[in-house]
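Students often ask why we bother predicting the structure of a whole assembly rather than each chain alone. The short answer is interfaces. A chain on its own may look different once its partners are present, and contacts between molecules only exist in the joint model. In this exercise we take two input lines together and write out one structure for the complete complex. Read the inputs first and try to guess which parts will touch.
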Amino acid sequence: MSSESSPSLSLPGHPGDATAVVVTQGATEYLSRTLAGLAAQSRPPARVLVVDVSRDGGVVLPPGAPEHWRLLAAPGARTFGAAVREAVAREGASGADGGSQGSGASGADGGHGPGRAPASTRWLWLLHDDSAPEPTALAALLRAVEHSPSVGVAGPKQRTWGEPVRLLEAGVTTSRFGRRMTGVDEGEVDQGQLDGRDDVLGVGTVGMLVRTDVWEQLGGTDPALGPYLDGLDLSRRARLSGHRVVVVPNAVVRHARASFTGLRDGDGEPDHRSSFGARRQALLHTQLAWVPLPLVPAVVVLALASGVMRALWRVITKEPVLAVADLTAPLWVLARPGRIAAARRTARRTRALPRRSLRPLQATWRDVYREYRDRRMRRRESQRVVRAPSELELRELAAITRRRRWALGGLALVLAGASWAGLSGLVTAVAGGARLAGGALAPSVRFTAWWDAIVSGWVPGGLGAPGPADPLLLALAPLAAVTGGSAEPYVMLGGVLAAGVSAWFAAGAATRSLALRTWAALVWAAAPALLLAQGQGRLGAVLAHVMIPWVALGIARAVGVQRTDVVASGMADADRPAPSASPAETGGSVPETGALLADAGGSVPETGGSRPEVGDPGPDAERWRGSLGAAAAAGLALAVATSGAPVLLPAGLLVLLVIVLVTPRRRGRVLFVAVPALVLHAPLLADALGSTPSDTSSASLRALLGDPGLPLASRLAPVWQQLLGWPVEPVAGDSVLPALPGQGWAWITGGVLVIVALAALLRGRAVARGVRAGWWTVACGLLVAGVSGRVEVAAADGVLVRGWGGVGVSLAVAGLLVAALLGADGVRERLGTRTFGWRQPLVALLALVAVAGPALQLGAWALDARADRPGLVGARTVAALDAPLVPAVGRQAQHGSQSARVLVLAPDAAAASADGGGDAAGDAGGASDAGAGAATGVRWQFVREDGPALTDRSTVTAARELEGGLFAHGAQAAAHPAPTAPELALVDELVARIVAGSAGDVSDALAERGVAIVLLPAASAVVGPRGTHAEADPGRAAALASARGRLEGQLDATEGLERIAANETGTVWRVAVVDGEDEVVGGSAWAQLVGADGGRVAIDSAGLTVDTEIPAGAEGRTLVLAEAADPGWRARLDGRTLRSVQNDWRVAFELPAEGGRLEVSYDPADRAPRLWVQGVVLGLTLLLALPVRRRRGVIQ
Amino acid sequence: MSVWPGRLARAGSGILVLGAVAAVGAAGWFTPVPDDVPLAGAGIPVPAAPTTLVCPAPVVLPESGDEDDPEFDPAPVDSVDRIRFVAGAGAGPRDGESAGTASPGSADPPPGAVLEAWPLDDLAGPPVLTADASGIVADVEPGGGAALVGSRVAVASGEPTTGTVARSQPVAELPPRVAGAVVSAVSAGDLRGITAASCQRPASELWLVGGGTELGTTTLLVVHNPGATPAEIGLEMWGPAGPVELGGGARYVVPSGGEISLRLSALAPELASTVVRVTSAGGQIGAYLQVSELDGFTPGGVDLVVPGLAPTTRQVIGSLVVPESQVDAPGAGLLRLLAPVGTAGGRDAPEGADDRAGSQVPEVTESAEVPVRVSFVGESGPVVLPGAEEVVLVAGEVTDVDLGGLPAGAYAVVVDSEVPVLAGARVERVGTPAEPGDPAPVEQAWIAAGARASAELIAVPAGLAVDAVLTAVPAAPEPSAGDPTGVTRARLTAYDEAGAVLVSEEVTMPAGTTLRVPLPEGTAAVELIPTLAAGTAGMADPGEPSDLDATAESVDGLSAGASFAWGVLVQSQGTDGTLLSVLTPPLHRAAIDEVVVRQSRRMPLE
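Now the answer. The structure tokens for the assembled complex follow.
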């Protein structure tokens, strides 16, 4: 450079009365060109000060620089303005010492020789190291200001540094709100469109010509600013102190904006986002410095609020770095109020004009809007221009899309048809208002109860127990909110369709072959794990099965290894060596158009292995970045899947760890996928990890293996059947399929899948990592299936329940599908390259069997379900409940201000069948009726909703009912039921006495437990398949009916119960609480005031909370709740916390004599932090997952 | 070659992941899935409930709708009505417990029971009868077993005019030993005969096997409501042609302390034989049939039909004491059988004909054939009644089996079936005609199927000859003749009116035999206490089938494979023949000493 510019240094010119100050941070790559531009000025500055603010001082002046060029080191300068200030001060002083010239500031007579530097000049010309002035820049600037004495500051027109030359700015203004506006779009070509500008609100410090006295008067730039907005701030203050600020379009400076675009960071990638935080801070600083004092508080609030809002928006647009900057910028600025105060002080000192004098120069709202609109239009246009494919490509893409849509539509139609064929009875019943129940499925409840369960941390089943609600409730809450609480029918009935569709989309990440995607979708939708779960009402397992493909798809997209349909033009082929090197692919496409249908991404078969490895950033490196939004979506999908089956969490972590290992980049993103699920399960995990290794910890580990929903026993199939997709053994039942030896039909689908997945292991490098990840998933799936199927997780009626192995099996099948799809992708093209031999028929046969297997399985399932045959997956236990389980009077008591419970009593089926068995064994004389054995069985249940609800239980409370080791030794199960909680044991005893007729007046005991209604369900209210038990043992049905009759008679004869109705729901008794002669109103209310004399007053409550006015009363009152005692309950009277007292098993608080507003809720110490953390993490993940296109290349 | 490292890495990683799958598979293969853990409900011992007994009203002359013949008085003599209550001092051993648990050496014998009785129409008034055993000191035999703890009773007698309700509170949380019986004796007229019945425990489902509505037979259904709440009762009836459609809804409300009396012929006339089911909602009731027959002007017998066992696969009727008789001759007695539909399942439906059971069973079994096996246990072992070993019933149709041809003696009838059936029996005595050539008067007694006996007390009204009839019923449904499966043993005690022990003897019987024990005059109460724990009707351990053989104790090298069926035959020798009736222990024991309770975690009634 110096060799070129040296001659220009010797060019004679009339030196201007200006001191050029170039501030640089060491010897940057731009400096030489800047200095050359400076040296080439047609009217050179009288003096040039090159200020190096770096500490290493590597800057040298170009050889042959005139002597009035000085190099100064100012390592202490933190900002541009400070550097200039220091340079002027030092050089001015030294000049005064050594110069013969007078220090007259107006000495613009041009008498300085080129070799002599004046001590002081009238003008300062400020330049950055990355701003190279055009040769006439200074001349134009000086010309503009020489005859306008009112001008204090003049600025040049800025153009871009590199080619092509674009306009950057020609003076700036601000909106009324302080927002900086240049009126120039990114990439605008300079056609002289802004050359008419003269007076402006401000100019940047780049090439700024500022009168020395004005600089002195204003104190230079704001020390808090720089390099952003310092020029504008200076200009503004100059304006307010009465000077003009002009832009001189003839003067041109090329500006690299190295700080702005982050080029100084050293990675060579322009990224203006890296400077965003500093710019944001500068903007907030100027806003606070500029506004009138009374408005400062408002601006502070706005800054904080807008920081949060902007941060959220940044999350939506997937710019987490900017989100952090947006969030922290106001804090940084507000943390240093002294700088704002100083800035305001400086501004006030020099202000001569009112702020409103700036109005004409500021942009109006219309200008702001116009700029916004122009920017949007330009962005859209530029996107279109950049992406526009050719017509041929468009047509090709459209054809692909059309075929894909047809295939998807057909698939959806088939799945919907099968679902309808199999489930039409349930669907029509649900559409008619019925609820689904049976098996593991509890019927839906009101959404308020649903929501209470999620947020309260109190599980209301029985007499209540502390514990986190099942995450499933939270995962289904949006659906439940929309549908008023009945989320589960949609999941249960739409499960097959949803699973197939999700598998279709997920398969699209592994292959673009429509046939393979359809096959994968069929296999997934016909998976026994899904059909079994659906038939048995395992809501969580169905949800998990539906969500697993979405997790896989999200991970693939997050890492960026998914495949997409790409039409590569013949031109593009030149720099896409991979497809062109593959004759297999070119041969199968449409050569006559010159377009080539190719899979982009990791689809390159090994024959064309010019790419070193999967995930290598190739020509389409943009896509290889993957997507943060996809990672967030995968995280949400995993959270939903694990909420359906907590056992997926450890399995998912194992799989993710291996994916992290085999992923070349974006590993943090893969790990992030686990975060929402971990946060969702944090209460369970904290419980499991925080406790000591004893029985209690086994309970919390059990909770992680348990399934949400009612406990339903299952027996795990042998492991080879699991590998073939069967979590439990197929039923040798009546089916539409002709019986094959050894349940032959059951193994076809899984067998083909395993064969193809095994073959996939032989495929080459391109898919090797994916295939191995798939097989690893298989191992993890089988592991969790095996573990959960061997660990008791809950106690059901009559048997201990082990975890449902179907979720692990789903995971294993997913892994097999991943491997098989990756392996089978492109097989047809590869076969085409081989001569016809044994391979082709074998593959054709395999393909035929592969499609026939799941299709037959699904069809048989649909027909069997329609005909109520058990089929391979066994009888369906889910049934439609078209009548309420709890009669209207009971629901009124539950949902009214009493918030009462309903006690459901039923003869115990197990005991009754033992009864019947005794008879069948020839026991002389029917012990069942005579009661000669003098024992009888009964089941009881407290319900607070219309039947037992999903919200009544949680895997945690279920696990607490067991104790003992996790794993069995030999054939002996390790777990055994834990002793019944004392408060429930009391209920057991009460019920026993009622049944035996020896309870006396039960009204007080029931009222104490908040029971207002006792219900004996009608025999016709049987839920579930009526064929199974009853048919197996007709005597049992009779025994049950007669046991029910006896129980009914006994309840009739029980004191304190008044029969009020007998209808199809069952027989209903009211608990009549009598005090002396009078009946106590609301005697069975959930919340009651008990006086010192024992008198009771009901208190209005809503579910598990109380918020009501209570009257004053006597001393010694106690507030009691019909809920098991726990320290987490809080009661406040007029805001004062009430003292909790011991009262048997119940929650009780001491009440003062005076009345007031009484609030009661369950609010343990960890509840609020838990909800906050969960809410924030899940909310941010949700925002991140929102599909909003990232705005690249747009200046913010 | 540079491809080799990659190939080796792929091969290695492939083997690694397959190895992981294989390891997991092997672990799963070699770790058996443990057996299911059955979860028994909590068996909760409960204190005994108060015992209520409902006693029938004295026999009443049914109002005939015919014009009365002023020349003929259907009731030339008044009936002699007696009621007797017994309350035991102390408590007998409880079922299923070893007899030794109530220690005879206990310093304080449990207090005696108090039984108080009110007339049905004045339940709120003072009790009219009180059998107070509380002051009686237990009379423990030296060295005697605990079976004899409190082997004294208090007896109260009276003359009832209406139905009677008796109540007794539990003693020391054990069910009180109380019993009651009513007898009406009429020596002449339409109602000639003895009608006697033990007081029953109220229930909400009662099966009455007996009676008819043919011309000459009058059957009154009497329902008593001893409870404090009104009871809504429902009736179902079966006749020889199947279930009877009852007009008029067949639902009645019985107020508290109320009684209703219905002529079955008004509901369904011209049925040769009837079975009635009474159900109640809102309260537990007592019910019985009063059956009286006339052959022209000749009395054909009168008795009360008390509730028998609900349909089960085995029904046992004890205490059949029959004279020598011929087939189809009068006085032979009969066995009434019914396989009801609608209340029990039928297994004769082809398997899988329909996937439903329970409510739809009637369609399937409406006219299905139900084979039942009828066996007679006589005094020297099983007796075969030709033609009656295998009876094929038509479901829903009441079938009478004539007992003619049975050798004279005491029997128990055991009815076994694959499906639940009902049984009841009638024995008859033919008297001597007033004038030669006139038809002979007949006396009849209905016997209801009873439950397997446990420690039970039967009150016996005064003035009658008393025989206890005991049968050791074999446990197996098919007792092979001559090869009884075991023995059973009990202590039979008779008390006199003062409460003192008249007779007390240990009876050991081989299974499949019947024993008739004449009791001395003045017997006021009879008590049978099985002393061999002959299998508990095991609900305490639902996992074990309560097969008697499985739980029987072994005593003296003989297995206790039998249980008792027993009753008390009361007779009076009138001028024109024998009058008789049979008292059976009351059904519907209220004593539940353990309830298996579990908190349900699933859908109700699933």
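Check your guess against this: Chain A touches chain B through 130 residues (CB under 8 Å).
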